[in-house]
Amino acid sequence: MSIVTQCIANADREARYLSVGELSTIRTFFEEGRHRLRIAAILTNNEQQIVHKGSQLFWQRCPVTPSNSDDPTFQASCLRDQAWYVRLVTYAIVVGDVEPIQTIGLYGAQAMYNSLGVPLKNLVDCMRCLKEVALEMLTLEDAAEVAPYFDCVIQGLTSR
User: pLDDT tens for residues 100-133?
Assistant: First the structure.
């Protein structure tokens, strides 16, 4: 839940106006918004490169995997899913919260990938490769902000 939604929900639950502290927190969230939007734009503008380089790196590390098979349809589906997770990371960056990753990206993911015969260990390793490639495109400060969102995806696919 974004900080704005959380502050409003808390105040509404208590049937009160937003406190000075909550308003300050929301103001800070919006002031830092340009920074988050800039980072999300970098990832969005480089999504194809992130997915291409990330998958190449993954296939170097794990050459025998369903996504690296002779089935172009299956491979395209895997690349599409990788792009989808990069997109979810950008959503989370924009709202400053992992909620989009948890509710949109991880709910039922393990069951779905297991039913498709996709080894979760491979998927997690692939997400690590996407993270590595994405972080290389960013400044150290931006990378430090983005890394936890990729870690949320990785952890979510590992522990569910």
Answer: 999 888 888 888 888 887 888 999 999 999 999 9
What is the rounded radius of gyration, in angstroms, for the C-alpha atoms of the chain? 18
Domain residue limits, the chain: 1-31, 33-159
Q: Give the containing element (helix H, strand E) for 86.
A: helix 72-95
Q: What is the CATH number of domain 33-159?
A: 1.10.490.20
157 or 74, which is more confident: 157
* DSSP letter for each residue of 29-75: HHHTHHHHHHHHHHHHHTHHHHHHHHHHHHHHH--SSGGGSS-HHHH
Total residues found in the chain within this entry: 160
CA distance 81 to 75: 10
Residue 119 DSSP code: -
